[in-house]
Amino acid sequence: DPLATLDVALSRCRRCPRLVAWREEVARTKRAAYANETYWGRPVPGFGPSDASLAIIGLAPAAHGGNRTGRMFTGDRSGDVLFQALYDVGLASQPTSTRIGDGLALYGTRITAPVHCAPPANKPTPAERDACRPWLARELDLLRPTLRAVVVLGAFGWQASLPVLGEIWPIPKPAPRFGHGTEVILGGLHLFGCYHVSQQNVFRSLLTPAMVREVLSRAKDAAGL
Ligand code: SF4
């Protein structure tokens, strides 16, 4: 499976010195609640089947979420919102995602990110975003035969993903702007925008569970799932 091979190669990447230092420091120092756990502390690969027809693109792993568990959106509050919604619309086998080996399966859906290492304050630099771009490009290229829809969570992911998507599908000019619920058709691919499922957005009620379900449900239809 070429995607599994890509995931292994990705998990050894050390291209960004600041992010390598941060992900490893967080893994060493840990959060008190997880003091007994061994953190992953490496780049977090995409999660989901290699013949996915829907991709969900976030921002970057959370320091004590994906950087701890080794799986995208797993073990953090953003993931709680995302996986509940995926389960509600029939794209996940269970509403929670706690750790690798918890039995969670995604149906026709792959979750990934434009930056694969946890950044300080959840803010990658433009240089780090650009350094990580080839990984997303390879992943989307491998998914291309089956991919029909993409949901991008948040403006950072949107800005980072458009050039990568544009290498495969035609992007209109001027480039489509990010917005919650935005839908753009790029050749055979349906691209959707959704506010990021961050705790901050949910806490401020900028994003409700119903709003996430609504976008995911449209994307599921567009993907033929
Ligand atoms: Fe490598 Fe991407 Fe991590 Fe940078 S962010 S070290 S390019 S995996």
TrEMBL record:
<keyword id="KW-0234">DNA repair</keyword>
<dbReference type="InterPro" id="IPR005122">
    <property type="entry name" value="Uracil-DNA_glycosylase-like"/>
</dbReference>
<comment type="similarity">
    <text>Belongs to the uracil-DNA glycosylase (UDG) superfamily. Type 5 (UDGb) family.</text>
</comment>
<keyword id="KW-0378">Hydrolase</keyword>
<feature type="domain" description="Uracil-DNA glycosylase-like">
    <location>
        <begin position="45"/>
        <end position="216"/>
    </location>
</feature>
<protein>
    <recommendedName>
        <fullName>Type-5 uracil-DNA glycosylase</fullName>
    </recommendedName>
</protein>
<keyword id="KW-0227">DNA damage</keyword>
<keyword id="KW-0479">Metal-binding</keyword>
<dbReference type="InterPro" id="IPR044147">
    <property type="entry name" value="UdgB-like"/>
</dbReference>
<dbReference type="InterPro" id="IPR051536">
    <property type="entry name" value="UDG_Type-4/5"/>
</dbReference>
<keyword id="KW-0411">Iron-sulfur</keyword>
<keyword id="KW-0408">Iron</keyword>
<keyword id="KW-0004">4Fe-4S</keyword>
<dbReference type="Pfam" id="PF03167">
    <property type="entry name" value="UDG"/>
</dbReference>
<dbReference type="InterPro" id="IPR036895">
    <property type="entry name" value="Uracil-DNA_glycosylase-like_sf"/>
</dbReference>
